[in-house]
Amino acid sequence: MTTVRKYVQTLSEAELLEIISDYEKFETEGAIGDSLLRKTAEIFAVEGSITRWMELVAFEAYRVFAELHIRGLSKTTQVTAND
Predict the structure, then answer these.
(1) CB 34, CB 83: distance < 8 Å
(2) Tell me, what's the pLDDT at 72?
(3) Separation in Å, CA 7 to CA 16, 29, 36, 39, 69
(4) 61 closest CA partner among 20, 6, 26
(5) What is the 3-state secondary structure (H, E, C) of the chain?
(6) Residue spans per domain, the chain
(7) What is this structure's pTM?
(8) Residue 58 half-sphere exposure, CB side, CA atoms within 13 Å?
(9) Average pLDDT by consecutive 10-residue portion of the chain (83 residues)?
(10) What pLDDT score was predicted for residue 11?
């Protein structure tokens, strides 16, 4: 497990959503100022492009958020092969 993944897993659902929102803004506008996404990426960006680190953080946020909701869905819905 990567250090970024471990860190992102410690974030709250609200923080995950904020990072995802920041990344979507970054994708559409091409730049982003002071944001949770940038601040989190700066923790890891000792080498390389900050943009690449922002992508890594955002992709982990998407993954962790999806995993939380898939687990929640599987607890409330039983899907069978006949469905």
Answers:
(1) no
(2) 74
(3) 11, 26, 13, 13, 19
(4) 20
(5) CCHHHHHHCCCCHHHHHHHHHHHHHHHHHCCCCCCHHHHHHHHHCCCCCHHHHHHHHHHHHHHHHHHHHHHHHHHHCCCCCCC
(6) 12-76
(7) 0.81
(8) 19
(9) 89 96 95 93 88 95 92 62 52
(10) 96
